[in-house]
Automatic annotation (TrEMBL):
Transmembrane domains' residue ranges: 6-28, 179-199
Enzyme class: transferase
Listed InterPro entries: Diguanylate_Cyclase, GGDEF_dom, Nucleotide_cyclase, Rev_trsase/Diguanyl_cyclase
Catalytic function, reaction form: 2 GTP = 3',3'-c-di-GMP + 2 diphosphate
Protein name: diguanylate cyclase
EC number: 2.7.7.65
Protein keywords: Membrane, Transmembrane, Transmembrane helix
Length: 380
């Protein structure tokens, strides 16, 4: 119940955390997308080309004012045709770009003004070609200068605007990289934390399971574990055939040990008996039996040993060895003169018989052993 609550809390925190991160990243990305996605390279190239126009116009007009020849006239005419085209192309690029319109509006106004002057400039060129009077030359020079300065200023402003936008784009990319890095780090931390928590929960569960299946005093399996293991052994015996025997052991007059030597001494005896059982069981495993025996403390001074692949005779020999071993357990002083003995009930499973029925028969046999004088074996 507690683990479930902890898990639900953990998952909720993680979901909320990821939701907030996702929302923040989403908002930031939407804002940054336009800026970062824009490609200013083509526009910068056009602007650099356009910046040559006022220079060429000045050179062309100067030459025309000095000595009008057909090459200079052609050059200026070509520029008068090219400049408005370039202006329109740049206006189109600007209006389709992600740049804020208030940034480029003043320079478009200036370009519009310059564009309006171009027909007048053309007329003044023609007038100079017709009559090279000082007044005509002057008015061409003045208007030419005005057009040239207007163009130069507009293109230089546009160049600056594009450089600023590119710098802003680079800055945004830097922020985006940091944000992505941060999100990834958070992801690693959260996933790592989650994995650690799950590992801890898994370990705690394993430990709890072990504790719930183990007898704390002797370290043997407890009754519950014996029942669980028995189910497995009985199912296997039913599938593959083979005898299955059960020993139920009860220490004789154990109350006396407690009464005479104290409870701690009694505990030591129980541990010593458990050691004898484990040792014997391990030895019997070495004798080429596929399934291992199950030893359990069923409660108090009562133990049980389940012996798969073991018939009545083999179980009897095994029980006799255990009885002898327990009789020979040497107790420490002051109980060294006291002999521990055990009574054992033996039952071998009949076809189709379950663990509970087998246990009941072995238990009855055990009580017969007690009744017939203790320190002996009885068969069901
Ligand atoms: N030291 C110790 N004693 C225990 C433990 N569990 C049960 N006992 C004792 O085992 C004794 C069992 O006594 P009885 O049921 O009268 O049986 P018994 O004296 O062995 O006599 P029989 O079984 O008739 O031979 C009691 O004194 C319990 O207190 C334990 O964990 N530690």
């Amino acid at each position: 119940m507690k683990v479930d609550g902890f898990r639900i809390g953990l998952v909720t925190v993680i979901v909320v955390l990821f939701g907030l991160c996702g929302l923040a990243a989403g908002m930031y990305m939407t804002q940054a997308r336009h800026l970062v996605g824009a490609d200013y390279t083509a526009m910068v190239t056009d602007v650099v080309r356009a910046q040559e126009d006022p220079v060429k116009l000045r050179l062309g007009l100067d030459s025309l004012l000095d000595s009008p020849d057909s090459i200079h006239i052609q050059q200026v005419s070509h520029l008068m045709w090219l400049i408005p085209q370039r202006m329109e192309s740049l206006r189109h690029s600007l209006e389709n770009s992600d740049l804020p319109s208030q940034g480029y509006a003043p320079l478009l106004e200036e370009l519009d003004y310059v564009k309006q002057q171009l027909p007048t400039l053309g007329e003044r060129v023609e007038r100079v070609m017709d009559e090279r009077t000082p007044a005509n030359l002057d008015s061409l020079r003045v208007l030419g200068l005005e057009v040239e300065e207007g163009l130069a200023w507009s293109y230089s402003e546009l160049n600056e605007l594009l450089h600023q936008a590119s710098a802003e784009q680079r800055r945004m990319m830097g922020w985006l990289s940091t944000a992505v890095l941060l999100l990834l780090s958070m992801l690693v931390v959260v996933v790592g934390g989650l994995a650690l928590s799950l590992l801890q929960i898994h370990r705690q569960r394993e430990r709890l399971r072990e504790l719930s299946e183990t007898d704390a005093l002797t370290g043997l399996s407890n009754r519950r574990k014996m029942q669980e293991m028995a189910q497995h052994d009985f199912a296997r015996a039913a599938r593959q055939g083979g005898a299955l025997s059960l020993l139920v052991l009860d220490l004789d007059l154990f109350k006396e040990v407690n009464d005479r030597f104290g409870h701690p001494a009694g505990d030591k005896v129980l541990k010593a008996v458990a050691d004898v059982l484990v040792k014997r069981v391990r030895e019997s495993d070495v004798v080429a039996r596929m399934e291992s025996d199950v030893v359990a403390r069923m409660g108090g001074e009562e133990f049980a040993v389940l012996l798969p692949d073991t018939d009545r005779d083999a179980a009897t020999r095994f029980a006799e060895r255990i009885r002898g071993d327990i009789e020979r357990i040497a107790l420490p002083e002051p109980a060294d003169a006291h002999a521990i003995t055990v009574s054992i009930g033996i039952a071998t499973a009949a076809p189709g018989e379950g663990f509970d029925a087998l246990y009941t028969r072995a238990d009855r046999a055990l009580y017969r052993a007690k009744a017939r004088g203790r320190n002996r074996l009885e068969h069901a």
